Amino acid sequence: MDGYLSLRDCQQYCVSVAVCRVELVKPVIAIFRHDPVASQDCVDGMIEALSGDFAIKLFDENDLAHDPLRDADIVAFPGGIGNAYYRFFDCFKRRETNEIADFISRGGKYLGICMGAYWAGRNYFDLLSGLEPVQYIKSPAADIKRSYPTVAKVSWGTRDEKIFFYDGPTFVGDGRCQHHARYANGLPMAIIQGRVGLIGCHLESQHKWYDKPYMQKHWHGGAHHALLLSFTKKLMRAK
Questions:
Q1: C-alpha count within 13 angstroms, C-beta hemisphere, residue 18
Q2: Which domain CATH number covers 188?
Q3: Is residue 15 very low, low, confident or very high in pLDDT (cuts 50, 70, 90)?
Q4: What is the domain count for the chain?
Q5: pLDDT tens for residues 147-156?
Q6: What's the average model confidence in pLDDT over 8-37?
Q7: Considering the domain boundaries, does residue 5 fall inside one?
Q8: Prior bond to 78 cis, omega within 30?
Q9: Which of 5, 39, 49, 136 is geometrically suited to a Cys-Cys bond with 225, CB 3.0 to 4.6 A?
Q10: Is the C-alpha dihedral spanning 201, 133, 97, 81 positive or negative?
Q11: What is the C-alpha separation between 136 and 170, in angstroms, rounded?
Q12: Residues 136 and 188 sit within 8 Å (Cβ to Cβ)
């Protein structure tokens, strides 16, 4: 009869709707925001780089009592300003620290950039096995010797890049991990160990970060956002 769908048409329609719904559902990244500890600039850069393929939600330490990670696939901690140790304990008490570790143990993923990468270490969330984030500028033969906004020479796969750097970590120890990028002295800059992905440099950097005359020539035109997105997708697939 006119105006009605056959059983076969109904089945095909339902399959099409189901496929569309699956395609529209993005994995969720919960990004910690507490400016300047987890700086708004870093959060904005992560959103710009990742929001095309991931749904973004923001939370701070006060939200942890309301289980902000219940629907998240990845929890992300960006870079920020200040001493990683004191800033961490300004934000988190033992209970909140355990909630992040519990999220990872339940199958969630952790993405840490710069300060967020430091916070994966044993004095903070304690998420690593046999590895510890340490200051790159204090590592042997480091090509950057002091803390200031600059770019680090990095080998990312087969590509040589100069990536925004501000006193980020490298990772030392005998723990096994996947190395995705290395600094000029050969030490790791970006790693994935289990469900924990850590990056020492700022792939999320935006054009405004390069406003100083000595930095302007290093603007990546969005290429480093693509590297961050690729890295995050690989982390998403980690077991």
A1: 6
A2: 3.40.50.880
A3: very low
A4: 1
A5: 999 999 999 9
A6: 68
A7: no
A8: no
A9: 49
A10: negative
A11: 5
A12: no
Q: Which domain holds residue 151?
A: 25-236
Neighbours of 146 (CB within 10 A): 8
Task: List phi, psi (to 5°) of 4.
Answer: -115, 150
Segment 82-124, tens digit of pLDDT? 666 667 877 777 666 778 889 999 999 999 999 999 999 998 9
